[in-house]
Amino acid sequence: MILRRLRRRRSRVRPDDAGRAVLRVLGRGQGSALPVRRRAAAARRLAELDLGRDVQFCAQLDLHDVLPVFLEQRVELAPGD
Question: How far from each other are the two terminal CA atoms of the chain, in whole angstroms?
Answer without folding.
Answer: 16
